[in-house]
Write a structure and sequence with these properties.
Blueprint (H helix, E strand, L loop, with lengths): L1 H7 L19 H10 L15 H68 L3 H21 L2 E4 L11 E7 L9 E6 L1 E4 L2 E4 L1 E6 L2
Parallel strand pairs: 2-6
Antiparallel strand pairs: 1-4, 3-6, 4-5
Helix pairs in contact: 3-4
């Protein structure tokens, strides 16, 4: 009887079951696996630490310095571009002046020769022909640059090309007709470089 009681006696109470533990060096995956094997329903979470204010300040200062350096490089590049553009514009103007001077020099040389010959001779007809030749050559040189004079006498008055100095009344002329010019107008292509100064008829 005593053996029967001893065999079927209730087991002694044991202490509370020990909670599963993970070694300090375990990774999050190892910890999750250990918890699953022990039947624990609690989930393991890892909190991502936020950067300290000091580290964030250092990062922002570095980004600011990089941006300042980029802006300084852009400013230097723009200054170089502006300087090159100014030099190119000045060089283009000088080249344009050189072309005009070289085009006018032959006519000026002829005028100098005609003036010198006229002073040594009393042949006025020869002097007149020499001056006409200089005028013709000068007009040709200007036309080679795209510059030429336009005729106004007998044409209708055009404010875009003419400047009226005075008006007159001539019955045999049309109204607003240019009857005389004091200064001939000059154009370069479609651009009026100088308006013709004219006298206009008004009935």
């Amino acid at each position: 009887m005593s053996r029967f009681k001893a065999k079927h006696a209730a087991p002694e109470a044991q202490g509370p079951a020990a909670e599963p533990s993970t070694p300090p060096s375990a990774t999050p995956e190892d910890a999750a696996e250990a918890l699953t094997q022990n039947g624990t329903a609690e989930a393991w979470t890892e909190e991502t630490p936020l950067p300290s204010p000091e580290l964030e300040c250092v990062r922002l200062q570095g980004a600011l310095m990089e941006e300042q350096e980029r802006l300084l490089r852009l400013r230097a590049e723009f200054d170089n571009y502006r300087r090159r553009s100014s030099q190119d514009i000045a060089r283009s103007r000088e080249q344009a002046v050189d072309r005009v001077v070289l085009a006018l020099l032959p006519a000026l040389d002829d005028l100098e020769r005609v003036t010198r010959q006229g002073a040594a001779s009393e042949d006025l007809e020869s002097l007149r022909r020499g001056l006409d030749m200089v005028q013709t050559k000068l007009a040709q040189q200007l036309e080679s640059l795209g510059v030429k004079a336009f005729l106004s006498v007998g044409q209708p008055f055009d404010p875009a090309r003419h400047e009226a100095l005075s008006i007159c009344q001539m019955p045999d002329k049309a109204d607003d007709e240019v009857v005389d010019e004091h200064v001939r107008g000059v154009v370069r292509g479609d651009t009026v470089l100088r308006h013709a100064q004219v006298i206009v008829n008004k009935r």
